[in-house]
Amino acid sequence: MPDIMDTCDSSSDLSWQPAKEMVFNCDPLLPSSYLHTCGKISLELGVAEDVLKIIEENEESCVKSAESQNSDLIPAFYEGGLKVWECTDDLLGFLSNPSNIQQKLKDSAVLDLGCGSGAVGISCLMCEASQVHFQDYNEEVIKYYTRPNVTLNFPGVNVEDKVRYFSGDWESFCGLVQDVKYDLIFTSETIYNPDCYKKLLKVFKQLLKPEGHVYVAAKTYYFGVGGGTRQFEEALETDGVFKSEVVWKFDAGLNREILKLTWL
């Protein structure tokens, strides 16, 4: 589990950044990149150290401040978007198996929620999703990491008409995309804070199509925080809107799972 600061603070006591759509009028600054392979999926992703250098050269940043404190997560300040976590790789491996979900991606509307690198959403674009929306808490992550990664994986190809980018808190995010309902929502490593379950479920309930599915990749338990798949399942049962099933499991070492959510 990443180094976490102040995770015991109640979400109601924190000042979360309001959501906004990020619209760009110029090409992204491209960092050096490396080939990130998981299953049958290979992606060009920016090197985090180079991304940080670009951020430092261009603006003051909460991401830079958090990294200088050797912290992967400071709630309502920096939410760990510059790392590719284990459960993101789990989702990539799941997506790379044609028998799982690939056939559902073609012509689908997809939300990559808490996208970080954007690896999951980029993979969906490669599988011919009609539109992919990327959401992450920090503006700097979207501007200097997510969007450049999209460009790196589609050299010479304009996919801007298929993508939109959003930053900020989930609570206000729903109001920005009232014109869209998603066939598929993917989210990885986003259930570590039980205080945020209510607004996470709000996103699912307001933005998922009636026949849509949500895929949540997470650790069974997040030490030092209290969240995890079992506690999230309890929240789902209490809320009474979605049912869940475990569609993938990793039992060696730190246990990880992928949950599939469907409407009750």
Overview of the molecule:
It is a single chain. With 264 residues, the protein is an alpha/beta fold. The protein is built from nine helices and ten strands. A hairpin with a 2-residue loop joins strand 2 and strand 3. Mean pLDDT is 88; it is low at 1-11.
What assembly state would you assign to the polypeptide chains in this entry?
Answer: single chain
Strand order in space, largest sheet = 1-6-5-4-7-8-10-9
What is the molecular shape? globular
Annotation field: number of helices: 9
| Series of secondary-structure elements, N-terminal to C-terminal | EEEHHHHEHEHEHEHEHEE
Q: Helix share of residues?
A: 25-40%
Largest sheet: 8 strands, mixed
Key phrases:
two-stranded antiparallel sheet; 10 strands; single chain; alpha/beta; 264 residues; 8-stranded mixed sheet
Task: Break the fold down into its secondary structure elements and pairings.
Layout: E1 20-22, E2 33-38, E3 41-46, H1 48-58, H2 62-68, H3 86-95, H4 98-105, E4 109-113, H5 119-126, E5 131-136, H6 139-153, E6 163-167, H7 170-173, E7 182-188, H8 197-207, E8 208-219, H9 229-239, E9 242-250, E10 256-263
Parallel strand pairs: 4-5, 4-7, 5-6, 7-8
Antiparallel strand pairs: 1-6, 2-3, 8-10, 9-10
